[in-house]
Specification:
15 helices
């Protein structure tokens, strides 16, 4: 073994050790940095326009854009949290008044209006109310426990707010530098990858196209479903339509159940309190429009933009969600696109078909004459 070979082995061994140690150090910040990368890519076109308007001052444009994204993300979250806490208390007060006015004893009368709730269910509930004199108090106590539980969850979230705030600040801090120096970082990474120019172009083009398609597909679908469901909640007179619309948009990211986790209980509520036509309208709108549009809009935006097989796209979303949490909805399809691109490069480089001349030469070879 020559001296140069020994030096190369020691150098790459030390390099691998340093990369591992840096990975251990950076591990707590992986998720915030990934979110910063995604947000920086989405905001990069706006960053270029803002930099041009400010005559090339990239630091100022990055600061203004980061501040705008900070306000855009913090203000709605704080508002929804405040409204949720406030309306949870209002909901408990309304249920308390309903119970005190004898609403529990009128449950069989309410159930008689439902075409699907007659018969044994109505008879069983009537016997339960008559046989248990304190049923209303028990019901009210159970409602109070649920309200206290929900408020307790918000309190627990507030207690753990330091970790969330720290990760959020890391993301914002990283986002500023990605917006300011992102072009240089991208060019450095581009030159570092040991591939031919043609393969690097294919790799980064596919990566960028998949990222944009996944983000647009998930976000646009969630917003559309939330708006459609919120319009129905408002027109049908459902309490707290804004909060329910936001919950519907968030639940659209859940693979199983999705928006039905919100509009289905709302439908039961409308059937319960009547008139029945409101429940029918909510059921038809939720099943026929809100949930159905997900099957058309999301595959159209993600599948067409990223050009990924539908079956593998489905499993990449589910697997990414299970492995990485919420951000896995984005990472799953992105990693799938990278793998598909790597397979295509492998086939081009290492599975080339034999040339036509070689094949013909093999066919033209005649066996030697027998003696």
């Amino acid at each position: 073994m020559t001296r140069q070979q020994v030096f190369a082995i020691c150098f790459f061994g030390l390099l691998i050790l340093l990369i591992y140690q840096i990975g251990v150090i950076f591990r707590p910040f992986i998720l915030p940095v990934l979110w910063a990368v995604i947000l920086a890519r989405l905001a990069f076109p706006l960053q270029r326009r803002l930099t041009a308007m400010l005559r090339g001052r990239e630091g100022l444009s990055a600061g203004l854009l980061t501040l705008g994204l900070l306000l855009l993300g913090v203000v709605p979250v704080l508002y929804i949290t405040f409204v949720f806490v406030q309306e949870t208390s209002v909901a408990y007060q309304e249920i308390n008044l309903w119970v005190q006015s004898g609403g529990v004893k009128r449950l069989p009368e309410y159930l008689a209006k439902l075409p699907i709730a007659r018969g044994k269910l109505q008879e069983w509930l009537g016997q339960l109310i008559v046989g248990n004199g304190d049923f209303a108090g028990s019901f009210l106590q159970g409602t109070k426990v649920v309200s206290v539980f929900l408020l307790g969850e918000v309190t627990d979230f507030a207690k753990n707010a330091f970790q969330f705030t720290f990760s959020f600040l890391v993301m914002i801090f990283t986002l500023f530098f990605f917006l300011k120096d992102g072009q240089g970082l991208y060019e450095g990474l581009y030159e570092l990858i040991p591939l031919t120019e043609r393969h690097k172009q294919k790799f980064f083009t596919r990566l960028d196209r998949t990222t944009m398609a996944v983000v647009q597909g998930l976000v646009v679908t969630a917003l559309v479903q939330g708006l459609l469901a919120g319009a129905a909640y408002w027109m049908l007179g459902v309490p707290f339509p804004m909060v329910l619309a936001a919950l519907t948009a968030l639940c659209s990211f859940i693979p199983f159940g999705g928006t039905a986790l919100v509009w289905a209980p709302v439908t039961i509520y409308l059937f319960w309190l009547g008139p029945i036509w409101k429940g029918i309208v909510m059921l038809a709108w939720g099943a026929g429009v809100v949930s159905t549009i997900d099957h058309f809009l999301k595959p159209m935006l993600i599948g067409h933009g990223a050009q990924l097989p539908t079956l593998f796209l489905f499993f990449s979303i589910l697997g990414g969600l299970a492995a990485y949490g919420f951000i896995g909805l984005l990472l799953g399809p992105i990693l799938l696109a990278i793998l598909i691109t790597a397979i295509q490069i492998y086939r081009e480089e290492y599975q080339e078909e034999p040339s036509f001349d070689v094949v013909n030469q093999n066919r033209d070879v005649t066996p030697p004459p027998q003696s």
